[in-house]
From TrEMBL:
The keyword Oxidoreductase applies. FAD binds at residues 47, 55, 60, 100, 135, 299, 340. Homodimer. Keywords: FAD, Flavoprotein, NADP, Oxidoreductase. The lineage of its organism: Bacteria, Pseudomonadati, Pseudomonadota, Betaproteobacteria, Burkholderiales. Belongs to the ferredoxin--NADP reductase type 2 family. It comes from the Bacteria. Coiled coil: none annotated. It holds the Pfam family Pyr_redox_2. HAMAP family: FENR2. The keyword Iron-sulfur does not apply. This is Ferredoxin--NADP reductase.
């Protein structure tokens, strides 16, 4: 599996041609990439996040999983690493930070798929392994936040240098909030961490580092909920904080709100697929959606008695890819070989070490 060095959003790079596009680098998307290689399909993976692993990485990396066949126990992070190792023989390009936005079927039956950052794919089939949808930052619900977005209100920190010499409030109590507050204090004029309570969900080591930095006078920590933004002209001036003693104002030029991520089916809902309860209806003989050539596997698939389990997604991907083969190579008859008898696969696995 290779992280792809994608061209800038405004480049006119030609479409990336492949047999299958896998949307989602969660456990099911990663296994699908392996299985595609086994049956002789080329594929590319895209994920909206900047890291692989889907829910396993984002929601419970250190929790043990006990129901993966033949692995009595491993953490979610470890499972993702094992899936990456399994994929290695096929060296599948993986495009991170790329949310798939639109699909369009051409007259020749192939699909043109576009991401929000300008990548274009030309594929015979699309494998949606998109879980609950793309993870997007949980945003402030204050109406005054929207016009300030990206200029004074931020949901990520793309460039630390943008905050040099500024006053910054970082809001949140998880790892991202604490890690960014600690990092920004080195360049900002003043950093204040704001969290609803004095307990944190971040790693103990990050909490200890933050408390040391506060004691050393390098940053501030305030308990409170952000209930309003004061704007002057088109710039942020202060936040209104509600806490036990009442409300106070905290002056700041920038607010970085790191409240975690929420899943959003987003653009996939507009693709003309039959969807129930935010999931894509599929035919369980091949996990194909209502649009032939688009498949849905893993948590995003909807059918009677669907179980949102990793092992169910593995099975679904395996069957879906066999049907996808007929779109990529309509003239060929795919001959089934057990992996234990597949000499070419054995060579590839050996070469990958
Ligand atoms: C706390 C917790 C514990 C769990 N424990 C277990 C367990 O013990 N055993 C078990 O079997 N299951 C467990 N699960 C469930 C399991 O994690 C899911 O079934 C599994 O992650 C589904 O995998 P997936 O690949 O289908 O989707 P996900 O893991 O959700 O990955 C989907 C990926 O698709 C990406 N994506 C979505 N939309 C787009 C788009 N438009 N463009 C680009 N990328 C997109 C997302 O960013 C995401 O990375 C647990 C879940 C949780 C939350």
């Amino acid at each position: 599996m290779t992280p792809a060095a994608d061209p800038p959003a405004d480049s006119l790079a030609p479409p990336i041609r492949s047999d299958v596009l896998i949307v989602g680098a969660g456990p099911v998307g990663l296994f699908a990439a392996f299985e595609a290689g086994v049956i002789g399909l080329s594929c590319q993976i895209v994920d909206a996040l900047d890291k692989i692993g889907g829910q396993c990485t984002e929601l419970y990396p250190d929790k043990p999983i006990y129901d993966i066949p033949a692995i009595p126990s491993c953490t979610a992070r470890d499972l993702v690493e094992r899936l990456m190792t399994q994929c290695k023989p096929f060296d599948v390009p993986i495009h991170l930070d790329q949310r798939v936005e639109s699909v369009e079927q051409r007259d020749d039956g192939r699909w043109t798929v576009r991401t929000g950052r300008g990548l274009v794919f030309d594929v015979a089939a699309i494998m949606l392994a998109a879980g609950n949808g793309a993870f997007v930052p949980q945003k402030l619900t204050l109406p005054e936040a929207l016009p300030l977005e990206s200029r004074h209100v931020h949901y990520s920190v793309p460039r630390v240098a943008d905050f040099a010499g500024k006053t910054v409030v970082v809001a949140g109590g998880g790892d991202s909030a604490l890690d960014w507050a600690l990092a920004l204090r080195k360049v900002a004029r003043r950093v204040t961490l704001v969290h609803r309570r004095s307990g944190f969900s971040a790693a103990d080591s990050s909490v200890a580092s933050m408390r040391r930095a506060v004691e050393a006078g390098e940053m501030d920590f305030v308990v409170g909920a952000i209930t309003g933004l004061s704007v002057q002209g088109d710039a942020l001036k202060a936040l209104t904080l509600r806490h036990i003693e009442g409300e106070t104002q905290l002056e700041t030029e920038h607010l970085v709100a790191l409240y975690g991520l929420v899943a959003d089916l987003g653009p996939i809902a507009q693709w003309g697929l039959t969807i129930h309860g935010g999931r894509v209806d599929v035919d369980t003989s091949n996990y194909e959606s209502s649009r032939p050539g688009i498949f849905a596997v893993g948590d995003i698939a909807n059918y009677p008695n669907k179980q949102k389990l990793i092992l169910s997604g593995f099975h679904e991907a395996s069957l879906a890819l066999r049907k996808a083969y007929s779109y990529a190579y309509p003239e060929k008859k795919r001959v089934h070989i057990h992996s234990s008898y597949d000499a070419k696969l054995a060579e590839k696995v050996a070469a990958a070490g």
